[in-house]
Backbone:
């Protein structure tokens, strides 16, 4: 999604430098060509070698070091950049750029580039709220530099407040959105649930199901590539999260999934519930491992909340709600009933008894049932291709 985009990543000396390593790594995984410039202070926290290995490019820091690649290095980097991202940006570097100071490779490149500059301040909350810093930030934003707002929370100095560097995935998501604006789902918030939940019985056992999460992960990846801001809530899965997510939330139980989904539902434009949620949980979770003393064992279960049904009740008119129906019999009738009962825009029905379809396979065999009674059938396809078909349908619903 950032294929071939040249990103100059300016890294300054704050405690959040370690997050810059992950930012560089995530940008590269999205296909960007990342060139890191470090200040002298940044090198006190992390070595050049780390960034060189992660980006596959030489790291610049010393204006006067012999150069391997560029004619006049800071100018070459300034020209090469499609975007410059400064993360973390200390109060010091923000002040210098605001005043046109160019006394190292980073500030010189910032002054010389005409590429858009994003900066993510990270510092103690008093330093951030200091009038000097606030005015410097205002100066930069009034000149068109893009501020990535600091987050609130625990700070390295032991206090808590505003000043944390946002999580690397959020920063990368800002850069991703910048390049992908104009895509079909740019500006849209998509919430996807995936994989099966696990309901504990005792410290070693749980009730689970065969869902691998493949369909949900493919949907989340497809939403990212269409420019959406994507939150993926996933039960346990061995899959790697798609790159470019705004948030990746791992949960275990239906209760945890419900809490994660409900707290994000208000902001979501599109919700796809591909997760295989356990319908029941143990009434009592044993504190210790249950021993096999008895010849028979009866486990008392109680019903889990139906998350999708609750979403259907809360749904606003412009929100799109998509559900899945995993069936072993009466596919159409059962799926239709769920479509109505859960107030969905459409439902993806799959007969999980068919070979190479349903749980834990690379492919799936689905039918899409809509509110007007229409049934669209698809041949056996890879889950990644079906994710495209499902989003084509979502975009059609959006046009209405
Ligand atoms: N779902 C949910 N919460 C639950 C159960 C299901 O949000 N407690 C969602 C699933 O993510 C899926 C849809 O509801 O999108 C249908 O799930 P499915 O397991 O096929 O159906 P159920 O509603 O659980 O009904 P049944 O098990 O009786 O077939």
Residues:
């Amino acid at each position: 999604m950032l294929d071939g985009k040249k990103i100059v990543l300016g890294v300054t000396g704050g405690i959040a430098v370690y997050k810059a390593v992950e930012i560089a790594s995530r940008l590269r995984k999205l296909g960007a060509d990342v060139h890191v410039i470090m200040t002298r202070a940044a090198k006190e926290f992390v070595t050049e070698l780390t960034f060189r290995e992660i980006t596959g490019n030489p790291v610049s820091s010393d204006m006067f070091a012999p150069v391997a690649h560029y004619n006049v290095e800071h100018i070459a980097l300034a020209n090469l950049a499609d975007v410059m991202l400064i993360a973390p940006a200390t109060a010091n570097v923000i002040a210098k750029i605001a005043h046109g100071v160019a006394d190292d490779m980073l500030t010189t490149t910032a002054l010389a580039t005409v590429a858009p500059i994003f900066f993510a301040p990270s510092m103690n909350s008093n330093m951030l709220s200091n009038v000097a810093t606030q005015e410097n930030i205002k100066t930069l934003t009034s000149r068109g530099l893009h501020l990535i707002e600091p987050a609130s929370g625990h700070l390295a100095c032991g206090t808590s407040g505003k000043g944390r560097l946002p999580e690397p995935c959020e920063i990368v998501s800002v850069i991703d959105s910048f390049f992908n604006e104009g895509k079909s789902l740019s500006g849209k918030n998509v919430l996807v649930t995936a994989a099966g939940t696990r309901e504990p019985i005792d410290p070693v056992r749980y009730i689970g199901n065969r869902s691998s999460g493949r369909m949900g992960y493919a949907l989340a990846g497809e939403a990212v590539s269409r420019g959406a801001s994507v939150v993926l809530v996933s039960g346990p899965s061995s899959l790697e999260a798609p790159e470019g997510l705004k948030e990746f939330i791992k949960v275990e139980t239906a209760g945890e999934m419900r809490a994660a989904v409900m707290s994000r539902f208000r902001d979501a434009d599109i919700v796809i519930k591909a997760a295989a949620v356990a319908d029941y949980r143990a009434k009592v979770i044993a504190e210790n491992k249950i021993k096999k003393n008895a010849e028979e064992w009866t486990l008392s279960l109680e019903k889990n909340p139906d998350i999708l049904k609750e979403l259907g009740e809360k749904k606003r008119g412009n929100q799109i709600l998509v559900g899945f129906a995993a069936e072993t019999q009466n596919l159409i009738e059962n799926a239709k009933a769920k479509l109505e009962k859960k107030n969905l825009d459409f439902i993806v029905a799959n007969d999980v008894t068919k070979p190479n379809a349903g749980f834990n396979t690379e492919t799936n065999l689905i039918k899409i049932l809509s509110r007007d009674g229409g049934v669209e059938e698809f041949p056996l396809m890879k889950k990644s291709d079906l994710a495209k078909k499902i989003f084509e349908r979502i975009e059609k619903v959006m046009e209405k």
Q: What stands out?
A: The mean pLDDT is 93. The first helix runs from residue 17 to 29. The domain at 184-283+298-399 is CATH 3.40.50.10300 (Rossmann fold).
